[in-house]
Amino acid sequence: MSSRSSRSRQSSSSRITDDQIADLVSKLQQLVPEIRHRRSDKVSASKVLQETCNYIRNLHREVDDLSDRLSQLLASTDSNSAQAAIIRSLLNQ
User: Fold this and answer.
1) CA distance readout (Å), 40 to 7, 26, 36, 44
2) What is the distance between the alpha carbons of residues 39 and 4, in angstroms, rounded to a whole number?
3) Which residues of the chain have pLDDT under 70?
4) Pick from 32, 86, 87, 78: which is nearest to 54 by CA?
5) CB 48 within 8 A of CB 25
6) Are 48 and 28 spatial neighbours (Cβ–Cβ below 8 Å)?
7) The 3-state secondary structure of the chain, one letter per residue
8) Dihedral of CA 13/15/19/20: which sign?
9) Closest C-alpha to 42, from 22, 58, 71, 59
10) Residue partners of 59: CB distance under 8 A and separation at least 6
11) Distance, CA of 23 to CA of 36 (rounded, Å)
């Protein structure tokens, strides 16, 4: 059997339907605050995907900022202090 025919069969069995795409886009729309809070229910799939990417980028920036702030806090805190111990125990959970 050629790899072309096996790929063709595999791709047809794993194809996603338009209804499944619409359902996934709808779920994304409910998760992304920027879209969820809009008045209109009709938002294009491309707009939902674009806003989702923006939202994920913003979350990454927030995580990076918080990580930097935490690193600075730990660096400025006496490693034997109760505050440092609490922070470390929270990080290890």
Assistant:
1) 41, 13, 9, 11
2) 47
3) 1-13, 39-41
4) 32
5) yes
6) yes
7) CCHHHHHHHHHHHCCCCHHHHHHHHHHHHHHCHHHHCCCCCCCCHHHHHHHHHHHHHHHHHHHHHHHHHHHHHHHHCCCCCHHHHHHHHHHCC
8) positive
9) 22
10) none
11) 15
pTM of the model: 0.66
Length of the chain: 93
Q: Tokens in use for 50?
A: 């674009």
Among 37, 89, 87, which residue's Cα sits nearest to residue 67?
Answer: 87
- List pLDDT tens digits, range 20-29: 999 999 999 9
Distant-in-sequence, close-in-space partners of 29: CB < 8 Å, separation ≥ 6: 35, 36, 43, 48
